[in-house]
Specification:
By secondary structure, the chain is α+β, with helices and mostly antiparallel strands. The protein has one domain (16-237). The chain is 21% helix and 30% strand. The protein is built from 6 helices and 11 strands. It has helices at residues 16-24, 35-38, 105-118, 176-188, 216-220, 232-237, and strands at 41-42, 53-54, 58-60, 67-72, 79-86, 89-97, 122-128, 131-141, 147-159, 162-170, 190-191. The strands form 2 sheets. Strands 4-5-6-10-9-8-7 form a 7-stranded antiparallel β-sheet, sandwiched between helices. Strand 2 (53-54) and strand 3 (58-60) form a beta hairpin. It is globular, with a radius of gyration of 18 Å.
Length: 238
C-alpha cells in the first residue's frame, strides 16, 4: 500500500456552516444527489492533513488490503489515472476540470457509449448510487482463442469546477457486496482542483506521492524501471 503526505488542514464537511453552504451552492452539488455531504469531496470540504495518500489532484484514503497503482502515459511519462485494487476488483479514477456551473457527466456518458459502440460493444444506462451510470460490455478473446466480453461499470460525479470519473471492473461488476466496497472508496476520494485556469475536460494533474524528506521536483522527475506503468483500462475504455 502506498502512503503519502497530506495537505494542509482545511475546513471539514462536519462543520454545519460548511455543509450548509455547500448544499445550497449549485456549484458544489451539480450532481444533484447530495454530493457535498456524501462524497466524493472537494478539498475545501475535508481535512486531508493526515491519513490520505496525496497524488496531486486526487487524495486517496487507504483501507486494509488496498493496493494503489498509478497509470502512466508512455510517451510523456505523465500520470493520467489512479487504479485501486481491492479484493479481486478494481476502481480506476480520473479527475477533470469542469465549468463552474455546468456538469460534464451527461456529455461524457454519450462519448463513452460512442467509444464502446465503435469497438463492437454495448452500453446500458442504469440508475446507480451516484445517479445515471453506464454498464459497458466490450468484446474480447479468451486465452484459448474463444470470443467473450469484459464488463466495466462507469460512474461520474460533477463537483465544483471538477468532474470525477470512476470505472469499476472485476468481481464488483457482478457482486453487489464487492461493488459497495468500491463505491465507498469512490465516495471517500478528495479532489484538489487547484486555482489554475484550465479548459473543460482537461485532465487534472497527478503525480507520485511525496515521501517525507523528498521534494516534489524529485518525485515529478522520477524515471527508470521503478516508475509505474500504464494500465490497460485507459487503452480500451478511455
Amino acid at each position: 500500500m502506498l502512503f503519502g503526505r497530506g495537505k494542509n488542514a482545511k475546513l471539514t464537511a462536519e462543520d454545519p456552516s460548511v455543509l450548509g453552504a455547500a448544499e445550497r451552492s449549485p456549484e458544489a452539488d451539480k450532481s444533484g444527489y447530495g454530493r457535498a455531504a456524501k462524497g466524493p469531496f472537494d478539498a475545501s470540504e475535508r481535512d486531508t492533513a493526515v491519513g490520505y495518500v496525496d497524488l496531486g489532484a486526487l487524495l486517496i484514503r487507504p483501507v486494509e488490503g488496498l493496493q494503489i497503482r498509478l497509470e502512466v502515459e508512455e510517451a510523456t511519462r505523465r500520470v493520467v489515472a489512479v487504479t485501486m485494487d481491492l479484493n479481486g476488483s478494481s476502481l480506476q479514477v480520473q479527475a477533470f476540470a469542469a465549468p463552474r456551473t455546468e456538469g460534464l457527466w451527461s456529455e461524457i456518458r454519450a462519448q463513452i457509449a460512442q467509444s464502446v459502440a465503435s469497438q463492437g460493444g454495448t452500453v446500458e444506462e442504469i440508475e446507480g448510487s451516484f445517479g445515471p451510470e453506464l454498464v459497458a460490455k466490450l468484446p474480447t478473446s479468451t486465452a484459448d482463442g474463444r470470443r467473450g466480453h469484459r464488463v466495466a461499470h462507469f460512474m461520474g460525479v460533477d463537483g465544483p469546477r471538477w468532474f470525477l470519473r470512476g470505472v469499476i471492473s472485476g468481481n464488483a461488476v457482478m457482486d453487489r457486496a464487492a461493488a459497495e466496497e468500491l463505491e465507498e472508496l469512490f465516495r471517500s476520494v478528495v479532489v484538489d482542483r487547484g486555482e489554475s485556469p484550465l479548459p473543460p475536460s482537461e485532465l487534472l494533474p497527478l503525480r507520485l506521492p511525496v515521501e517525507p524528506g523528498q521534494s516534489e521536483q524529485a518525485v515529478n522527475g522520477a524515471q527508470g524501471p521503478s516508475a509505474p506503468e500504464r494500465g490497460p483500462e485507459i487503452t480500451h475504455l478511455g
